[in-house]
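**Tokenised fold:**
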Amino acid sequence: MLRVGILGGGQLARLLCLAAHSIGFSSAVYAAEEFCPAKNVSQYYQGEFNDNARLNEFLANVDVVTIENENFSADFLGIIEAKNKLLPKSNSFIVFQDRLTEKKLFNQLNIPTNQFYPVDSYTTLQDAANQLGYPFVLKQRKLGYDGRGQYVIRGEKDITNFKDKQELFFIAEEWINYDREVSIVAARNTLGEISYYDICENRHENGILKKTQVRKADPMFPVATELVKKAMMHLNYVGVMTIEFFQVNQQLLANEVAPRVHNSGHWTMHGALTSQFENHIRAITGLALGSTDTVANVSMYNCIGGMPELGEVMKLPGAYNCDYLKTPRANRKLGHITLVDNDSTRFKNSEANLTELIKAAEVVDL
């Protein structure tokens, strides 16, 4: 039986393991934490990522390795890749874990994006302000997620907050007055076949994704698919990739790439014929990709800081609850709920009711 190895043990690893099992594969997870969402659904190897003995034990017992986040060091990824087991390849993780190299790749591939400037000192921060004008966004080049490590710079006063910093490792980005935020989720297998899911329209609050609405036959679908295809082909990418965009009029501006399964694709678990998790497993194990067709009206809601009362959620037609079994805390994604329904009126009523249930349970630091 083929065994899929996953680096990292969070909710994405958990859902990848379950997808692997549904196909008939076994799974193993390598993570540093004693307890994590993937632990009870997989063979679990607990160890630090510099523990070569433990890591080699893990690698000896898996056939292919993938990741649930892109924030591993290049040296570490090289160790995995040297054993010819890592998919996607390390080049994708190395490019996309740094916002500056990511933006440079967009320019290289003629993927439209907003203006940006590297910021490594207070002087270069002032230069970026002069070039971009106010407001603009200052982002950590690495490790920022869910709005962490991001600052809106509205004037000179905000810049002075960074005056005493010895070193800065940021990217300054042009402020975009966008019409909407969208993402495209795609999968490419080892045979070079590419499949695309319908465009997702996303709503964020405080930098955290709150809701994804699937848009079948969206007019921007051909544009989005062509842009994600450029990135996949250039990198000889294998697996699921997501690009998030700002839409301004009829143009898509690439914001960032996830070289992995992505939160805005969680709706595919119940709203598409094949989930993003199953297609990622299919892609890295050399199987044909499953159909990405959307089955009905679909929306997905993240549960932040608290899960709504399960009994009330399950009363809603077409509601699917996914609890990550994580310890509750403010601003933490604890699970998601997907609504799937062909009846448009009933779907809208369920959305309104679900929104209230989630809001009542939510714990977010403002």
